[in-house]
Amino acid sequence: MPLSAQKHPHSSITEGKWTGYLSQSDRDYGFFFAMEFYPDGTGISQIISDTEGGNAYMDFQWQLNDSSGQVHFSEQAIKSRSVPGWRWCLKTATLTPDSTHSAWTLAGQWSGHIPDPPSGPCAPGFLYLEKPKPEFSPRSVQATPLPYEQKTNRQVEVQRTLEVKRKEVKIKIWDNGIVDGDVLTLFLNGEQIVKNYRVTRKKLTIPVTLEQTNNYIILHAINTGSISPNTVAVSVDDGTRDQVVILSSNLSTSGAIMVREFVVNGVGSRE
Length: 271
Prior knowledge:
Radius of gyration: 19 Å
Strand order of the largest sheet: 1-2-3-4-5-6-7-8
Number of domains: 2
Helix content: under 10%
Largest sheet: 8 strands, antiparallel, barrel
Structural class: mainly beta
């Protein structure tokens, strides 16, 4: 039986799609991770590895702690996988809610086991998820489609929201897994800042100035390499901290980061 989703002030927030990353203690790279929470206490999670494993979908059950607001989930079965026989972990975690100015967050340690024979435990790790607040979704902050969507006829999925302390930042991109021939174009607010770039382990650094209140860094996949989809590490460095995101894109939907300058009482926090 599914775990029951409690009627709680946070339940409507929890429902829907969350995206982020998953780390594992025995790996030197991270995984793109997404979860879709359904109102009936079930859901589907997606994991993408930039290694031979490709990607997989899992069925999970979840429940909300009525007093703490924490979300507990447990993956039940592997629904599908791009590489037959790849031994994925089924994960269990209790995630603690928090928020930034522009997004709700869930984070916590996870543990798991491999259901395929020979079955057994897998190395644990950390999971972080975000869900943009409605007022910071592309459709809320812009009445018309993003310029990128108009140019490319691809849908944009905002997978992370970041706040920075100044408008002048450095964007870095690299392959955090196996270099598999991913080729991409990077857009900032509809303008190309990197064109037809074959991603490597070496970080490519692009200094930019954020001209808008809501700035969109969009990963446009030219191909998906030998391991689909196109998954790339992107960081945004404002000189104070370097925030790393794992973005995933395919040939119809492009992953994006929304970046805003942190504002206090209507004044930018630039030092």
